[in-house]
Amino acid sequence: MPSCQDVAADARIAARAKDALTAAARAAVQKLSGTVAIANAKLAYQRYTALVGSPRWQALAARGARPQRLLWASTGTKNPAYRDVLYVEELVGPETVNTMPPATLDAVRHHGVIRPSLEEDVEGARRTVAALASAGIPLAEITTELLTDALRLFEEPFRKLLDVIDEQLRTARPATVIDRQTFSAPAAIRAEVDATLDDWQARGASRRLWARDGRLWTGGDEHHWLGWLDITDAQEAHVDALCRAAAEIRADGFTAALLLGMGGSSLCPDVLRRTFGRQDDFPDLHVLDSTDPAQITRTMDALDLARTLVIVSSKSGSTLEPNILFEYVLERIAQVAGAGEAAGRFVAITDPESALQQLAEHRGFRRVFEGRPSIGGRYSALSDFGLAPAAFMGVDVARLLDRANGMVQSCASCVPARDNPGVVLGVLLGVLAKHGRDKVTIVASPAIASVGAWLEQLLAESTGKQGKGLIPVDGEDVGPPEIYGGDRVFVYLRLESSPDAEQDRVIDAIDTAGHPVIRIGLADPYDLGQEFFRWEMATAVAGAVIRINPFDQPDVEASKIETRRLTTAYEETGALPAEAPFLAAGGFTFFADPENVRAIEAAMAGDRSPSSCLRAHLSRLTAGDYVALLAYLDRRRDYEARLQIIRHRLREATRAATCVGFGPRFLHSTGQAYKGGPNSGVFLQITCEDAADVPVPGRRYSFGTVKAAQAQGDFAVLVGRGRRALRVHLGSDVAASLDALSRAVEAALAR
Questions:
Q1: Predicted structure pTM score
Q2: How far apart are CA 751 and CA 743, in angstroms?
Q3: Best label site of 292, 318, 673, 685, fewest CB within 10 Å?
């Protein structure tokens, strides 16, 4: 903006001339009037020509690179004392652009003199800038002020332009509403939600999120973990390749597919398996995400290994569970297919250059599907970690992606905050958490109920840290309003093609009672595609609201480190560190750290029965707390049913939110929130004596040993974070022991 620069410079020159002590000094300063902008432009042009003439640029130009030309703006003459074509005639040079107003253009046509003026008297330009500095007028200060003023002037027109575009986008959208999201909440919370949405809009936060601005959260490494924002575009181009791979698998006669993974590598495929079931003529997908020997044996016994494809899924390729499961399953496959053919029954899903990719190439896997390093595991549902297994089992991945893309567009950077379903949901969850409504109770129609397990990980592992976070509650049977405390928010995922009338009735009652309720409608199961993206966006936004990094998981890593320490010790000594129970009674043994033991025994008051121990532990619950049952058991339906009985009895007696997790699965999921989130959990870890064990090939330890190490490591990190925790060890007859535990809990609550 040469003309504006001269106006600003001339004002300072006039002020300095007025203060000059002598006529000579005054004349020297006044001589600079009308010369500063052109001198500065000439020096800028010299810098430009040096850059484009450099060997570095010439090498780029040889490969087709084109320079960004200098542009002179605001070149109409504002001072009538100057020639009306001054800022055109004096700014002529190759590879430049001059944006002159129409009147100036007419003047140039009439009487302008065009010559290569930018390269004339460069030394004179340097003397002018030096003289300006000598006069005490800093050029950098002038240009900074001009830039600030220009940005301020352009900001409002640009915002109006974006508003017009936003309105046109809303008008152009299909009449079908794809987000189907409503919420109800107390007036005070609604007011804060509205204010937060207004602030989000005013700060341009959606655009900053899509621009991967880590300062939206903590300014850490968040910008490295936002590859999920545009993954659907890449995946749409990849659909044909996925479908071809699925067709090849069918053609080769595979009737089953076994996925080995943990957390983000297994939860989405497990949701799709449970939602869509087996598709005609496609392999039946099984998921193995446990080190429990009984669960491993039960899963393997259900497979025809001669016709089973094995999917090893791990982003890093260094995760303990899939690695040792791979070695075990490879040995089993080799027994039926032969050692030379076994590896050809395996595919890998992993990040480029990971340890798993190297292993797959070395062993001769059938194929490797690559993830995207900028997407964390729990955000990977719409990458190959979710879509490759979906394609193998016959899910229409193009249709799933199409639904996801609809939500991507609804959450785009240009969509106003109040119209953006992901932003609205994230702000809701963040504001509710700050009001103590941090127990996100997930209620889903029966046909899509498994999505709760995926949401558990996304919410808990993303937000549960620094003493903050959301505690997802999945799997509780929805009950009457009076059994819930003031720490709840309900999310109702209603499958409109197959709703549950009783759920509708009870959710209406909960809403009427004044609890916050978020309702999301899904037209059919393929709308899970849009939910994956909606909730990824919402979780990222909630993280911004509560000011944490939603993409790291420090306490998950702490548990892994502790487990690795224990298994390494076992390899060296042949035993895990000895543990001494503080109570053995009724067929149970109870363990805790010294601090928890003191608190529990003080409340037991000499009564050494199991029910007394449990009552003492549960007596530490206060308003806003939750109970978590952490079961290192085979995830069988009958065991789950028994744990459900216990959890619901606890909820009815205490009004506390309840969580049930199977280890080690939950270590890669809700375990982050349990250890790093708010210290409002009361934990009952449940372990058992394994009736039979399964060896890990090439290792001194067994799967039972690994599970025991994971339980010990989990407990150690819990108590290291100051959590209220108790471990109860069952006998080898797990069903009978769980029944006995249920009776002990009932007795504890009855007194």
A1: 0.81
A2: 13
A3: 318
Give me the numbers of helices (H) and strands (E) for the chain, helices first please: 29, 18
How many residues appear in the chain?
Answer: 751
Sign of CA dihedral 392, 394, 398, 404: negative
Amino acid at 552: D
Q: What 8-state DSSP symbol labels residue 468?
A: B
* DSSP for residue 465: B
Look up residue 326 and give its two tokens. 């791979």
How far apart are alpha carbons 608 and 282 in whole angstroms?
Answer: 56
- E-assigned strand segments in 426-555: 439-444, 471-474, 488-495, 517-522
The pLDDT, as a whole number, for residue 176 is 40
Pairing, β 517-522 against β 488-495 = parallel
Q: Give residue-wise pLDDT tens across range 424-459.
A: 999 999 999 999 999 999 999 999 999 999 999 999
Token pair, residue 23, equals: 């006529």
Here the tokens at position 626 are 């939750």
The string of DSSP letters for 409-459 reads HHT-TTS-GGG-HHHHHHHHHHHHHHTT--EEEEEE-GGGTTHHHHHHHHH
Band the pLDDT of 21: cuts 50, 70, 90.
Answer: low
pLDDT for 104 beyond 80: yes
Measuring CA to CA, which residue among 387, 405, 403 is closest to residue 395?
Answer: 387
Name the token pair of 300.
Answer: 């393997």
Q: Which residues pair with 216 in a beta bridge?
A: none
Using one digit for the tens of pLDDT, what is the confidence trace for 275-328?
999 999 999 999 999 999 999 999 999 999 999 999 999 999 988 999 999 999
pLDDT, tens only, 472-505? 999 999 999 999 999 999 999 999 999 999 999 9
CA 112, distance to chain mean position in Å, is: 60
- Which residue matches tokens 């959208």? 173
Burial 541-566 (b: 16+ CB within 10 A, else e): bbbbbbebbbbbbebbebbbebbeeb
Phi, psi at 317, each rounded to 5°: 75, 5
Q: What φ, ψ does residue 255 adopt, rounded to 5°?
A: -105, -10
Q: 483-495: b or e for each residue (b if 16 or more CB lie within 10 Å)?
A: ebbebbbbbbbbb
Mean pLDDT of 338-359: 96
Q: What is the pLDDT of residue 1?
A: 62
SS3 content of the chain, % helix, strand, coil (to 5): 55, 15, 30
Strand segments, DSSP code E, in 602-716 are: 626-631, 657-662, 681-688
